[in-house]
Design a protein that fits this description.
CATH class of the largest domain: Alpha Beta
Structural class: alpha+beta
Number of domains: 2
Number of strands: 9
Mean pLDDT: 89
CATH superfamily of the largest domain: Elongation Factor G (Translational Gtpase), domain 3
Helix content: 25-40%
Length: 168
């Protein structure tokens, strides 16, 4: 089941007693299974993140985590709201990014997608796993994309499935 509400409020959680970390991890797995709208993420830093659709939703999830799923006392950070930006018009200048060793460069320009395309990506009508010729044909017929341009989609994002496209 796919929801149109995405998690926008995040907190970091940790057990009050470090020895209870395995219980916390197991509790986070149970919480993620019990509530499809919550996201439990382990950051590269090792920090455990719980993200929910709002402060009330997150508060309920944390109560469930502490009392039902992990059954341990937990410390919770202050909530952080995830902000999102959108492209409203094509950028006027080309942006350059270089790799740390300065041997690789990528030039980027942002432009908005046609109305309805992000929704089609969310619904699954346009997917990264779709055969590229079929996807190009669909984008050409419905959104008037040039077939050759539509074949140059490198990836979808965020997380490989979201409604943003990186194109050559």
């Amino acid at each position: 089941m796919k929801f149109s509400v995405s998690p926008v409020v995040r907190v970091a959680v940790e057990p009050r007693n470090p020895a209870d970390l395995p219980k916390l991890v197991e509790g986070l797995k149970r919480l993620a299974k019990s509530d499809p709208m919550v996201q439990c993420i382990i950051e590269e830093s090792g920090e455990h993140i719980v993200a929910g659709a709002g402060e009330l939703h997150l508060e309920i999830c944390l109560k469930d985590l502490e009392e039902d799923h992990a059954c341990i006392p937990i410390k919770v950070s202050d909530p952080v709201v995830s902000y999102r930006e959108t492209v409203s018009e094509e950028s006027e200048i080309m942006c350059l990014s270089k790799s740390p060793n300065k041997h690789n460069r990528i030039f980027l320009k942002a432009r908005p997608m046609p109305d309805g395309l992000p929704e089609d990506i969310d619904k699954g009508d346009v997917t990264p796993r779709q055969e590229f010729k079929a996807r190009a044909r669909y984008l050409n017929e419905k959104y008037d994309y040039d077939v050759n341009e539509a074949r140059k989609i490198w990836c979808f994002g965020p997380e490989g499935t979201g409604p943003n496209l990186l194109m050559d």
